[in-house]
Design goal:
Strand order of the largest sheet: 2-1-3-4-5-6
Helix content: 40-55%
Distance between the termini: 24 Å
Strand content: 5-15%
Structural class: alpha/beta
Number of strands: 6
Largest sheet: 6 strands, parallel
Number of helices: 10
Length: about 240
């Protein structure tokens, strides 16, 4: 099941809440998003309790929050934010400091429904990343993809795993792309490897998500490692 696009269904603008303990960080994030007419910042919170209260009041399309936000457990906050709504779930993007996320946090958050993992230092990528998630996609800073991969390597015995029959639903080209996504490559990097257009890679990946009931790239990375198919990639098929 692929994520449903939200994009401020009724207003045409993405309704956004910000969560960070530091007022200066919140001010900087607000300035970033208020300079883009795509977004409407509905409020700010300094802790998880306040963030959940604001979410209950404003019913945002997106929540951008610090992964170390004080208050309730991160995964509990995420689950409550992502909880089903009649007009679709709220998208959640986590911001990580320089040290990134703990292994347990990154995998747990992905499974809880977080669709974006970005570094605070990469301010130029934050707005576009949140926009991608609001449109039904996912966003991951390359360094955090590396964290996901490393955490999975440590928590799964790949030699004991076998692919599920569900993978038989994938074409050879889709399997190649699935494996490359699992290695942390972006759509453009995959396109370069397989000599395809980026749009073609994106189209293949959307079909992969539908066939395997994946929400985003994070789910794809986790599934590939759990099934033991995240290693070497087969030679590209000339017919794609």
């Amino acid at each position: 099941m692929s994520a449903r696009p939200r994009l401020g269904a009724r207003t045409g603008r993405i309704k956004l809440l910000l969560g960070d303990e530091q007022p200066l960080v919140r001010r900087g994030l607000r300035a970033l998003f208020e300079s883009d007419p795509t977004f409407r910042v509905q409020g700010e919170a300094a802790n998880g309790t306040s963030l959940l209260e604001l979410a209950g009041t404003h019913r945002p399309d997106m929540v951008l929050m610090d992964a170390d936000l004080p208050g309730p457990d991160l995964l509990d906050v995420v689950r409550r934010l992502v909880g089903d709504r009649l007009d679709g779930p709220t998208g959640v993007v986590l911001l990580a400091s320089e040290g990134g996320l703990a292994d347990g946090s990154v995998l747990g958050a992905a499974r809880a429904g977080v669709r974006g993992f970005l570094f605070k230092r990469e301010s130029s990528e934050i707005v576009s990343g949140v926009r991608d998630v609001a449109r039904g996609g996912a966003a991951m800073s390359p360094g955090i993809v590396g964290q996901v991969l490393e955490a999975l390597r440590r928590t799964h015995r790949l030699d004991a795993l076998r692919p599920s029959g569900e993978l038989s639903l994938l074409t050879p080209r889709e399997m190649q792309i699935f494996q490359l996504v699992a290695q942390g490559l972006t759509n453009q990097q995959i396109a370069d490897v397989l000599v395809l257009s980026e749009a073609t890679v994106k189209s293949h990946f959307n079909r992969i998500c539908r066939k395997l009931a994946l929400r985003n790239r994070v789910d794809a990375v986790i599934l590939a490692y759990e099934m033991g198919v995240a290693g070497a990639v087969a030679e590209p098929s000339p017919t794609g």
